[in-house]
Amino acid sequence: MAALDDFDLDEEEEQFPYPRRITREAPEINLLTYGPQRHAQQMILLDSFISKFELLLNQNKSSIQIEVIKQLTSLYLTIHQLVTTLPVYQFINNHLDQINILRIEFQAVIDEYLRGIQIEDTPYKDVVDILGIYSIIGDEARAVEILKEKSAKNPEN
Q1: Residue 155: helix, strand or coil by DSSP?
Q2: Could you name the domain of life of the organism this protein comes from (predicted)?
Q3: Would you say 135 and 76 are in contact if contact means Cβ atoms under 8 Å apart?
């Protein structure tokens, strides 16, 4: 019985915050997390991220740095995640052309960066970062292809 006397009901509620009994009350459903409103919010976010991506890309096209590429990668992945969570409606099809153009531009930017770096002069961390970005987007073969092109042009490297 001593064990029962030591049992603190308030402490148990803190550890297990759920109700002790099952009720027949209908759970509250936040309509902003389900249905058309959620999709509308996601579309607004998608538009926002696409605009940020385009702005960042256009502002830094002349001289891309690894930090900008990291930001573009983050936006690229966020856009991809939003697109995969939205149902395929007509309004998505309108955005898919724009998203595909951004994808191609992003790949061109990282390809150009990799072609432009001098492996022996570039900090090791930057080389690892750009190769990691290729890995994140699932295009490691493209990075290897570019590095082979570089080594064929410069056999001493």
Answers
A1: coil
A2: Eukaryota
A3: no
